Amino acid sequence: MGTPPEFRFVTESPQLRGYLLALTGDAHLADDLLQECFLIVRRRAAEFRPDGDFAAWCRGICRNLAREAARARRRGPLGLPEDVVELLAEEAPPPSDADAQLVAVRSCLQRLAPRARELLALRHVDGLPPRDIAARVGWSVNAVSVAVTRALASLRGCVAAHVEVARG
Questions:
Q1: Closest CA to 154 of 125, 118, 115, 111
Q2: Where are the domains of the chain?
Q3: How much is the pLDDT for 51?
Q4: Which fold has domain 82-167?
Q5: Looking at the domain covering 5-74, what would its CATH class be?
Q6: How confident is the model at residue 95 (pLDDT cuts 50, 70, 90)?
């Protein structure tokens, strides 16, 4: 009969985690998806053909899970990075001023250079890793990472200033 898929999964898990990390760019999300993959492998073990490529089967499951996670992230609140959302929550004006907060975010996004907005959208809305963004825009991975970091810092500073002004 051979080794049960659950046991084979254990030997493949370091490579699968690396694969998920490359797809998502987020270690915590990769760990969560790896656990979800294990549950699917366990639940669908009978579907695996013994003569099939187990690692490829698992990578397919991982790829589908990563795609679904990216779709879910795009549907998230405002499509902003978590730390910007947290800053907004910490510095949030009274609920009656919620529209002003949204205006501040939109205003700050519009003040960014078009390329900076594009890079933020590719990284934090589309969920692309810096490697894929670099290939798309023709920059080095390091240049993309630096540009995204600077754009986020600029966005944070602008939003914080708007919130401070709104507080009076």
A1: 111
A2: 5-74, 82-167
A3: 82
A4: Arc Repressor Mutant, subunit A (1.10.10)
A5: mainly alpha
A6: very low
